[in-house]
């Protein structure tokens, strides 16, 4: 059964796409079969990877899949130039998706059915890139995912954003939850599906200590991943060449950090 990993975190630019792409690449090097899905209308994941046969724009993308009544996964999947990695590309039409699908009320079974299809697929890991919002889609993804990576950068506002996300998750729960559910059990369900990852952290940055302590006060230390991805300009250089970091420079510290992270989330 495939494991589904998402990266819902409504603060923009924290490194969601960078982290997802590099975890996926490291998992593929560990001989795991990986499917990327780009649900961000900015299309960063779609455009930051290389495709087999120079084929760049797919005929079918995630918008088509999300608006189909009974989608068949294979129809939307494209091969990348990396061994063991395929993708369902994004679409800027996703910005208008709310008109098509209401993931929280009348269409609330769509994401569980979609995840059921992903779990039964041939992939070991399905990695879903998300946009920086608290949308119905993103709340539905957190609700159903096996693991959501909440990426926190050195900016102190990231903790405020995490608090807002938790608040909206709690608020949205009665809409789709079945039966009587207490606020404690909702927080518990959030804490078991979500892990915190520190990314883009300057060496010896003191804000981490404050952030760590706030998160420990909110939840528990076990939610924080051991691996920290430090700040390095190699992230930008690799992206300019549309390469995962460890393909760009296998011996770089950041490549080692992503390798460690992939093993930690496996
Ligand atoms: N560890 C890091 N060190 C240095 N630069 C980084 C690091 N992680 C990400 N970046 C850079 O930060 C910028 C934002 O990263 P990225 O696009 O992955 O963020 P995002 O959270 O996906 O953004 P958005 O919210 O718009 O989807 C990029 O230019 C990326 O190269
Ligand atoms: Mg992104």
TrEMBL record:
Pfam families linked: AAA_31
Q: Which residues form the AAA domain?
A: 3-166
**Which InterPro entries did the record assign?**
AAA_dom, DNA_Partitioning_ATPase, P-loop_NTPase
* Designated name of the protein: AAA domain-containing protein
- Give the organism, scientific name: Peptoniphilus porci
């Amino acid at each position: 059964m495939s494991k589904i990993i998402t990266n819902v975190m409504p603060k923009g630019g924290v490194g969601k796409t960078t982290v997802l792409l590099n975890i996926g690449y490291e998992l593929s090097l560990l001989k795991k079969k990986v499917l990327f899905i780009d649900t961000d209308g900015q299309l960063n994941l779609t455009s930051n990877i290389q495709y087999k046969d120079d084929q760049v724009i797919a005929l079918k993308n995630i918008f088509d899949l999300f608006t189909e009544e009974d989608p068949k996964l294979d129809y939307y999947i494209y091969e990348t130039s990396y061994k063991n990695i395929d993708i369902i590309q994004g679409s800027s039409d996703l910005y208008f998706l709310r008109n098509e699908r209401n993931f929280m009320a009348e269409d609330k079974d769509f994401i569980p059915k979609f995840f059921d299809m992903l779990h039964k697929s041939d992939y070991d890991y399905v990695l879903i890139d998300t946009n920086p919002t608290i949308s119905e889609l993103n709340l539905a993804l957190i609700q159903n995912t096996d693991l959501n990576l909440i990426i926190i950068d050195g900016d102190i506002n990231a903790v405020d954003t995490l608090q807002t996300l938790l608040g909206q998750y709690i608020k949205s729960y009665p809409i789709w939850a079945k039966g009587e559910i207490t606020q404690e059990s909702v927080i518990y369900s959030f804490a078991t599906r979500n892990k915190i990852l520190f990314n883009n952290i300057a060496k010896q940055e003191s804000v981490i200590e404050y952030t760590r302590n706030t998160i420990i006060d909110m939840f528990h230390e076990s939610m924080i991943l051991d691996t920290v991805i430090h700040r390095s300009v190699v992230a930008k250089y690799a992206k300019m060449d549309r390469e995962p970091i460890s393909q760009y420079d296998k011996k770089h510290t950041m490549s080692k950090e992503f390798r460690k992270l992939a093993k930690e989330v496996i």
